[in-house]
Each structure stands twice: as C-alpha cells, then as structure tokens.
C-alpha cells in the first residue's frame, strides 16, 4: 500500500517540473487524488461492495473533475496531468507508467458489450483532448496526439494524430518509410539518433516515459508535400521533353 503511494507520488515529481515536493503533490494535484481514490473504489468494487465503490468514484468526480469507473484496471505510476474532463470507462485497462492529459477519454462506442473500452500498454502518452474509443489496444510506448480520435488498434512505438487517428511515426520513422522495422539492421535513418525510439524498448519506470508532444508530423501536410513534389517532377519532365523537340 505504502509502496504504491510512494510510486504514485514519484511519478508526478518525475514528470511534472512544476511539482516541488511530495506534500504539494498530495495536497494540490487532482490527478494524484483521483488515482488514490480510484484505488480505494476499485478495492471495494472488486470485492462485491459495488455501491460503495461507485459512491467513492462519484465523490472523486465531484472533487477532481476526473471520472474513473471503479471497475477500471489501472497499473503502476499512472500520471493524470491537470485532469479536468478525463474519462476512463468501466472495462478500460491501463498499463504501467502511462501519462494522460486533461480532457482525454478512454471510452466506449456505445454499441459494444463485454469488453468495450480500450486497453492501454505501458509507457503510453495520451495527450490533451484525445479520445480512444472502443475495445481497441494501444501498444506500449505509443503516443496519442492532442485531439486525436483513435478507433483502431495502435501498434507499439507509434505516434498517432488526426481524426480519425493515423499513424504518422512508427519506431521513430515518419510514415510512410521503406525502412521501418529495420533499425536493428542499421539501415534506418533514425538509428542512433534521438528519434530512434527502439532505445527505450527495454527501459522500465520513468526511464521509458516519453512526454514529447511537439514532434508530431501532420499527415495532411505530408500528402500535400508529396503532391507538390510529384507536380514539380512532372513539370520538369514536360520541360525536358519540350526542349528536346
């Protein structure tokens, strides 16, 4: 119990530069309070005292603005930053060292039964306003960009942006890339650079957490750039053909 409390506090101190002490985290961080209240609610809910578990979760929502169903499964060192508007559904499963920002939703689509909420792997970042909907799986070390809507499974070591969500980075490489997955062969351009996320594959705890939310390629811009290059190439071919005549 006390080890879990200590790890929850350390997660906030490591990932939020504004956090200055354990006491400040305990008194002033709604995300931390919501996680602690959820752990109590889950304890009662999973032991047959479902009404008491729901009452604790409703009090948590009233106090923090964070709505976590008491049946949700949450791993170690979850950090909910700011937290207002975060929703985590009943059958959601969250791994270790996950970071969730304000306004994010791990919800259902309204038509599924049974397992109807997402499964989130380890070291995942879900940015502000993002929504992961339905019984989808988000692989470990993935990043969901701000405002993205994820309706399909997300592979590990990927970055997803857009509505609906599109994978724009995989293993640190921009998509499309002919050498994705060839990092071990030394053929990928990102090998040995900060973009090579494979360097985080075997890291655990805070060492494997990636909070970078700025290096998110725009898939629409990429398509426009590809079209521009194609048009320029066709114009160059046309000019070459005219000059030969």
What does this protein look like?
By secondary structure, this protein is an alpha/beta fold. It has two domains: 213 residues, UDP N-Acetylglucosamine Acyltransferase, domain 1 (3 Solenoid); 29 residues. It is 32% helix and 16% strand. The protein contains five helices and 16 strands. Strands 3-6-9-12-14-15-16 form a seven-stranded mixed sheet. Strand 15 and strand 16 form a beta hairpin. Helix 3 packs antiparallel against helix 4. The longest helix is centred in the C-terminal third of the chain and has 26 residues. The radius of gyration is 21 Å and the shape is elongated. It starts with a helix and ends with a helix. The relative contact order is 0.09. The mean pLDDT is 83.
SSE map:
Layout: H1 2-15, H2 22-28, H3 30-45, H4 50-64, E1 67-68, E2 73-74, E3 79-80, E4 87-88, E5 93-94, E6 99-100, E7 105-107, E8 119-120, E9 125-126, E10 131-133, E11 137-138, E12 143-144, E13 149-150, E14 158-161, E15 166-170, E16 173-174, H5 219-244
Parallel strand pairs: 1-4, 2-5, 3-6, 4-7, 5-8, 6-9, 7-10, 8-11, 9-12, 10-13, 12-14
Antiparallel strand pairs: 14-15, 15-16
Helix pairs in contact: 3-4
Overall shape: elongated
Q: Give me the oligomer status.
A: single chain
* Class by SSE composition: alpha/beta
Which CATH C-level class of the largest domain is it? Mainly Beta
Strand order of the largest sheet: 3-6-9-12-14-15-16
CATH architecture classification name of the largest domain = 3 Solenoid
What profile does the largest beta sheet have? 7 strands, mixed
How many DSSP-defined strands?
16
Percent helix range:
25-40%
